[in-house]
Amino acid sequence: MKQELDKSKFWPKVVQVIPTEEYCVYTYFNDGSVRLIDVKPLIKHGTIFEPLLDIDFFKSKLAIINDTIAWDIGGSRDSRKCIDLDPLVIFEQPVVEDPLSNELMVAEKLVGYRLN
């Protein structure tokens, strides 16, 4: 059984991100959890999130900057020229199954041994 995190001493850091076609992001944290955040409600015309309406832009500009989800709008990894989300807000999302776990199992069957 996993022990509960002491949130007074733990600061969640994003370590990996995977975008979806539905404007969601699978977010991997430094505690080993995977959480799914739906960004679509934030993406509206006339807001700072408007450039993300283009799904290709949404997916290609997604990055990890300052230990959280960010979109590298300027392309220079400058935190002042990106759109980012508070890691605490993302960490409050429900834990979900790792979307890559099935792909790993398929790959292991193809090669005939455990990959991790």
Description:
The protein has 116 residues and is an alpha+beta fold. The chain has one domain (14-111). It has helices at 55-60, 87-91, 101-111; strands at 14-19, 24-29, 34-38, 62-65, 68-71, 83-84. The strands form two sheets. It has a three-stranded antiparallel sheet. A hairpin with a 2-residue loop joins strand 4 and strand 5. The model has no long low-confidence stretch (mean pLDDT 88).
Count of DSSP-assigned helices: 3
Q: What radius of gyration results from the CA coordinates?
A: 16 Å
Whole-number count of domains: 1
Order the strands across the largest sheet as they lie in space: 1-2-3
Largest beta-sheet details:
3 strands, antiparallel
What's the average pLDDT?
A: 88
Contiguous runs where pLDDT drops below 50 for at least 5 residues:
none
The structure class reads: alpha+beta
